[in-house]
Write a structure and sequence with these properties.
Layout: E1 6-8, H1 16-20, E2 23-27, E3 33-37, E4 48-55, E5 59-73, E6 76-79, E7 83-85, E8 88-90, E9 97-102, E10 106-112, E11 115-122, E12 129-138, E13 144-156, E14 171-175, E15 178-182, E16 186-192, E17 196-208, H2 210-214, E18 220-233, E19 238-249, H3 265-289, H4 297-308, E20 310-312, E21 319-321, H5 332-344, H6 349-352
Antiparallel strand pairs: 1-9, 2-3, 3-4, 4-5, 5-6, 5-13, 7-8, 9-10, 10-11, 11-12, 12-19, 13-18, 14-15, 15-16, 16-19, 17-18, 20-21
């Protein structure tokens, strides 16, 4: 069964307003998710690369807002990221965005001079983990450096950070390609399969969320940038590597995460293929149970979307239904209303029980 795909590759930079309204989300089956816009600009306080339910008491946390990239080619520096502030967008890395696709995971493709960068985001099921796959295709005669800057939040997803009012109690540990940040109530680990991490802690203040301003919500947020991962690519060389972010609670009620953060491309590729297969199996099972229904692209999207609303709780024997994303949680009323479409038609009887 071929997975459905969605591609945006027409005049992205010149249709800023249109593409800024288009959002994507992928989920991890625990109530957590990764979400942003086609342009990679977070327009909601609920957007983030890793939003996780690390423990029952505190609910979802925005653990990491995003990863910003910067490409050094020869003597030129090209920022590929973009954030919105009250006085405008900075930097304007979306100008280098060649295409955005979901097939089945969100993928950003940037083109700078003779270098192409592909960035794919996915989440292993039932793990508070976000993995970003990078492919660098360097067709130039220059060696290049790709620098990746984690932007960290670690806050409740309904709130925002003002670093001057609410200072963090933070302990950091760096080891070559690994960064671990301990916040007291939990930790965030970021590891790269290639390159090294350089510590250079600083804050990015007053990031603006336009959708929150429309809703009358808090719309200014502060990100912590602990440093950057640096990867060098030789002239005419193609490179694949990955960054993995793992959130974990100190509390015993927290759901299990990977016993070890995957640090080898072999392990990460296996997780990626496992997630692709899980989605393919969902489609195959549906059409096997409904042989009178013809395969349709729009229906495939609907079938895959139903899976994002079904989550495992802190007791792995229990399933529940999220009422909606980004801010709703599991509500009994909504679960029973949606039961026929989400579970019965899809023949997910064990989850329904």
């Amino acid at each position: 069964m071929r997975l459905p795909s969605l591609v945006f590759d027409k005049d992205i930079s010149s249709n800023f307003k249109q593409y800024l309204l288009k959002e994507w989300i992928i989920t991890n089956g625990l109530g957590g998710y990764a979400s942003s816009t086609v342009l990679g600009i977070n327009t909601r306080k609920y957007h983030g690369l890793l939003v996780a339910s690390v423990d029952r008491a505190s609910g979802r946390k925005v653990c990491m807002a995003k990863l910003d990239e910067e490409m050094n080619i020869g003597k030129n520096i090209y920022p590929l990221s973009a954030s919105e502030f009250q006085n405008g967008i900075f930097p304007k890395g979306y100008m280098f965005l060649k295409s955005f696709s979901v097939s089945p995971f969100p993928k950003y493709t940037y083109s700078v001079e003779e270098v192409e960068l592909r960035k794919t985001i996915f989440m292993p099921c039932e793990k508070n983990v976000a993995i970003v796959l990078y492919e660098v295709l360097n067709q130039s005669d220059f060696g290049i450096e790709l620098r990746i800057f984690p932007l960290v939040n670690w806050r409740h997803y309904h709130s925002v950070i003002d670093r001057w009012k609410d200072p963090w109690k933070l302990t950091e540990e760096q080891k070559e390609n690994l960064l671990r940040m301990d916040f007291g109530d939990g930790s965030l680990s970021i590891v790269s399969t290639r390159g090294d991490f350089s510590a250079d802690g600083k804050w990015v203040e007053k990031v603006f969320y336009r959708e929150e301003e429309k809703r009358g919500e808090s719309s200014l947020d502060d990100y912590y940038q602990p440093g950057n991962f640096s990867v060098h690519v030789r002239a005419r060389e193609n490179v694949r590597f990955a960054l993995t972010a793992t959130a974990q609670s100190r509390k015993p009620s927290g759901p299990s995460v990977l016993s070890e953060t995957p640090i080898a491309m072999y392990d990460i590729d296996a997780l990626y293929e496992k997630e692709r297969k899980r989605r393919t199996d969902l489609l195959n099972r549906f059409y096997r149970e409904h042989r009178d229904i013809h395969v349709k692209e729009w229906l495939n999207w609907m079938i895959l979307a139903t899976d994002t609303f079904i989550i495992r709780g802190f007791d792995p024997r229990e399933s529940s239904v999220v009422a909606g994303y980004h801010w709703f949680e599991a509500w009994g009323r909504d679960a029973f209303i949606s039961l026929p479409g989400l579970l019965l038609v899809a023949r997910r009887f064990e989850d329904a029980r």
